[in-house]
User: Which sequence fits this backbone?
């Protein structure tokens, strides 16, 4: 038995050492990097691409061969992968991930942070945005090197470092029934993960109906349009709404994305149930916009009566309205009941607080006038 194993191993080694330019290059790289970065090489040896006979040099080129020419090693981004994976590369570029760098570059909020605290900008904003989009696209944002696994990218953890906090999709999903099922069953076709709903059929062009902003170019309802206008103005000051492809410009494009989503849910639920669930999400978008518009109008009133400066107004909108408004519908669409309620309570508390400050200010004014 031991002898057989030994024979098989030597057999494999002979095949691997069989002279040929590509195999030799791989061995050279592994001679050094197998010692320097053994886990990197271990991951690569477990990958589908290694099994298909690819070599290190297929991505990194042949220019670097030792410690004095390190700068000649290619740092592969989307263009290196596109040679063999054109469909995924094109899909990626068409979706929002392919515009993440552009979105960051044009946001006034980004310019502000970049000018005031460039190190913070690099390690936060840019770590997420350029982390997925630098040099046109970083495919290893989800398919971590050097395992480059499709299965790993289907797990919600592949999205965790970026879709959290201010954009709390990971937290919302984790606290939902779907997330609970994932925790108990793991990756399984009965359990939807982020990519079941957002990259169906391996479509790499991520985009949703409402988008990050919860806005649409055409709002048929007059009252809802009025609320959206107030919110939109405040968001223009922060910047995100100016990002490329930030919202669907017309109802036809909004509906196309919605129909696709209903079809995905309907793979497991009835279409009627799915439509009603998504409409319930839309009603929370409306509620979030209405509540936020009330808050914004009070904040504006404070600014107009010089109770707060433009700078204070900026941070009031950023710190007390922006993320909380979005969280309300992010939580709704990802079925996190407690999250929705906590954001509503936040707005009630902050709105009362602003009202109190405004009426104290008015009383002071009256006193001064007497
Ligand atoms: C003689 C040893 C040696 C060989 C052979 C070698 N490398 Fe390296 N490689 C190094 C060293 C040393 C570094 C720098 C490590 C550090 O900074 O800690 C490096 C760095 C790298 C980097 C990072 C470059 C960067 O910009 O930071 C890549 C990628 C790389 N090697 C790939 C390869 C590939 C692919 C091959 C085979 C074609 C290869 N190496 C062959 C020693 C080697
Ligand atoms: C399918 C393409 C591909 C192949 C094949 C590949 N790599 Fe890489 N490698 C990458 C990517 C992508 C990065 C990350 C580049 C970046 O972040 O700019 C990387 C980074 C590296 C780094 C730098 C790691 C660090 O943390 O600084 C080294 C060293 C490296 N590769 C060595 C190798 C070796 C050795 C092999 C063969 C065993 C190999 N690579 C095969 C795509 C590949
Ligand atoms: C020289 C061609 C080539 C290049 C360049 C290349 N790949 Fe691949 N890749 C392949 C082949 C071949 C397979 C299929 C292996 C299979 O189906 O078993 C594959 C499979 C994959 C898979 C699926 C793995 C799985 O778990 O099924 C991923 C993900 C992947 N590649 C990512 C990348 C990324 C990211 C890059 C760039 C950093 C890249 N590839 C560059 C040829 C290439
Ligand atoms: C933790 C990762 C992370 C950090 C840090 C981060 N972002 Fe983002 N950003 C995202 C994600 C994820 C989205 C998309 C969220 C969504 O669609 O719900 C996004 C969306 C955006 C958008 C585009 C909105 C749109 O509709 O297209 C802009 C602009 C933006 N962020 C700017 C910034 C600025 C400026 C900073 C730093 C002050 C920053 N981001 C920090 C992850 C991050
Ligand atoms: C946002 C995360 C994410 C990014 C970024 C990403 N992928 Fe993927 N990729 C996935 C997921 C999820 C799958 C599995 C899809 C499925 O079959 O369910 C996948 C599958 C693949 C496959 C296997 C296809 C198949 O049919 O088995 C390849 C090849 C691939 N991706 C290449 C790329 C390339 C090239 C890039 C960069 C342009 C890239 N990916 C960027 C998430 C990502
Ligand atoms: C390295 C950070 C990063 C990772 C990892 C990442 N994303 Fe993103 N994602 C972003 C950023 C940044 C944006 C916003 C881009 C913009 O607005 O231009 C975004 C946007 C999106 C959008 C578009 C929402 C809209 O506006 O309509 C979806 C959907 C999405 N991501 C899903 C995923 C999924 C699913 C995963 C995991 C498989 C994932 N992302 C992994 C950073 C990331
Ligand atoms: C069961 C399906 C499903 C799962 C699982 C899911 N989402 Fe979503 N996601 C949705 C729906 C529905 C929307 C709202 C679509 C719309 O605009 O009509 C949405 C919206 C989004 C958006 C856009 C902004 C927003 O409203 O949140 C991003 C980004 C996003 N999801 C990322 C993720 C990430 C990351 C995960 C995993 C942690 C995830 N989603 C899990 C269905 C899902
Ligand atoms: C891959 C299968 C799958 C997909 C796709 C899927 N779900 Fe589910 N969903 C489930 C399962 C399984 C349950 C638990 C069913 C039960 O409790 O009987 C569930 C439960 C739910 C629940 C009930 C939560 C609770 O607390 O009772 C809602 C709401 C829901 N899904 C909405 C959606 C929506 C909306 C979509 C599409 C955006 C969707 N689901 C997509 C499998 C899926």
Assistant:
């Amino acid at each position: 038995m031991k002898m057989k194993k030994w024979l098989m191993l030597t057999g494999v080694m002979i095949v691997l050492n069989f002279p040929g330019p590509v195999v030799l290059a791989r061995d050279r790289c592994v001679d050094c990097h197998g010692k320097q970065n053994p886990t990197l090489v271990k991951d690569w040896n477990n990958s589908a691409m290694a099994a298909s006979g690819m070599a290190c040099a297929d991505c990194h080129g042949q220019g670097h061969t030792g410690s004095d020419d390190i700068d000649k090693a290619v740092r592969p981004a989307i263009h290196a992968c596109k040679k063999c994976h054109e469909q995924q590369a094109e899909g990626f570029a068409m979706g929002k991930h392919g515009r993440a760098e552009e979105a960051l570059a044009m946001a006034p909020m980004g310019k502000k942070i970049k000018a005031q605290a460039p190190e913070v900008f690099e390690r936060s904003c840019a770590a997420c945005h350029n982390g997925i989009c630098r040099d046109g696209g970083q495919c290893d944002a989800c398919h971590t090197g050097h395992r480059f696994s499709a299965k790993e990218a289907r797990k919600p953890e592949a999205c965790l470092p970026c879709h959290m906090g201010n954009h709390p999709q990971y937290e919302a999903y984790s606290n939902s029934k779907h997330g609970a099922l994932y925790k108990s069953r793991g990756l399984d076709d009965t359990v939807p993960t982020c990519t079941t709903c957002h990259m169906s059929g391996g479509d790499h062009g991520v985009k949703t109906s409402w988008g990050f902003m919860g806005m649409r170019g055409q709002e048929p309802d007059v009252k809802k349009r009025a609320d959206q206008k107030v919110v939109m103005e405040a968001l223009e000051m922060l910047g995100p709404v100016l990002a490329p492809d930030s919202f669907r410009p017309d109802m036809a494009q909004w509906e196309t994305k919605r129909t696709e989503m209903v079809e995905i849910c309907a793979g497991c639920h009835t279409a009627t149930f799915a439509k009603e669930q998504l409409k319930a999400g839309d009603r929370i978008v409306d509620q979030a916009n209405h509540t936020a518009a009330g808050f914004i109008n009070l904040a504006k009133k404070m600014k107009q009566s010089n109770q707060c400066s433009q700078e204070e107004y900026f941070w009031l909108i950023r710190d007390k309205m922006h993320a909380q408004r979005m969280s309300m519908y992010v939580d709704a669409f990802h079925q996190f009941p407690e999250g929705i309620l906590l954001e509503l309570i936040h707005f009630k508390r902050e709105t009362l607080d602003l009202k109190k400050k405004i009426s104290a200010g008015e009383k002071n004014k009256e006193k001064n006038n007497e």
Remarks:
- The pocket of heme C (ligand 6) is lined by residues 96-97, 99-100, 103, 128-129, 131-132, 141-142, 153, 158-159, 161-163, 194-195, 198, 206-208, 211-212, 243 (CB under 6 Å).
- The radius of gyration is 26 Å.
- The mean pLDDT is 91.
- The CA atoms of residues 32 and 66 lie 8 Å apart.
